[in-house]
Amino acid sequence: MNSITPFQTHASTPEQVAFHRTELNEILSIYGRMVAAGEWRDYGISTLRDVAVFSVFRRTAENPLYRIEKRPKMRNRQGQYAVIGIDGQVLKRGHDLRMVLRVLERKLIRAVE
Question: Which residues in 8-37 are b (16+ Cβ under 10 Å) and which e?
């Protein structure tokens, strides 16, 4: 008789990093304001093994203008949240998502003539 080997689900299935509901509320709040201002038009969410990414697009077929990333492995170093520009440059990194997203809110403020 053959012996039955149980599946090891915890070791074989990789965990995915995802945004929590409160984190998505913060991101979608600024996203809504930028859409209302006519700056952004589309977004995409990717949940990968090591990172969750919220990508912001001006048009659907373009490269993302900004990527908001969550990397839990960076929690104890520079912070798990980052805003990355179209050229790959890290615009802001930190432990508090609201503070990191402030770099995008500056784009919303315009001079009124």
Answer: eeeeeeeeebebeeebbebbeebbeebeee
Q: Are 53 and 80 in contact (CB under 8 A)?
A: no
Q: How many domains does the chain have?
A: 1
Q: In whole angstroms, give the CA distance from residue 92 to residue 85.
A: 9
pLDDT at 111 over 50: no
Full domain range(s) for residue 36: 14-106
Residue 28 lies in a domain: yes
As a whole number, the mean pLDDT across the chain is: 82
The answer to whether residue 9 sits within a structural domain is no
CA distance 96 to 106: 17
Query: Is pLDDT at 92 greater than 80 in this prediction?
Result: yes
pTM of the model: 0.77
Please give the sequence-ordered ranges of beta strands (E in DSSP) within the chain, or none if there are none: 42-47, 52-57, 66-70, 81-84, 90-94
Q: How far is CA 107 from CA 37, 40, 54, 101, 104, in A?
A: 10, 11, 18, 11, 5
